[in-house]
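Most newcomers find our protein records easier to grasp once they have seen one. Read left to right, the backbone structure tokens trace the chain's path through space. Nothing more is needed to start thinking about how sequence determines fold. An example says more than a description, so a record of this kind follows:
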Amino acid sequence: MTAPVLDIHRILKLLPHRYPILLVDRVLEIEKNQRIKALKNVTINEPFFTGHFPHRPVMPGVLMLEALAQTAALLSFESMGQEPDADTVVYFVGIDGARFKRVVEPGDQLILEATIDRARGGIYKYKTRASVDGETAVEAELMCTMRKVS
């Protein structure tokens, strides 16, 4: 595998998320103000697998959407052209058209893709897709905004 465009150290500088909710391991490709492709290695050690489901571990759909949102946030932060303030976070403001098409299990590599559809009035709209081995697991349109927290 080629070197990541953004490694975990850069991701930790950009996102406020930490274990167990940090859901992006590396960024594979990025075109500022356009698109991003990232990776989440799904392992049996994830804390949610103990309860979802003990007899057949499956990654919760809401966490796949969160991984896509974190990927979109990385695109936004990298596109700004400057380091985000430590108190700047990206919040969900909407999820449209979410469709789950494949289960994600331990051992899968979840490829996370986001494309900026539009940015207006501080609201960013992204077309997103997560896949495993080229097969779509989930797709959705996400709307997010950046805010300072105090």
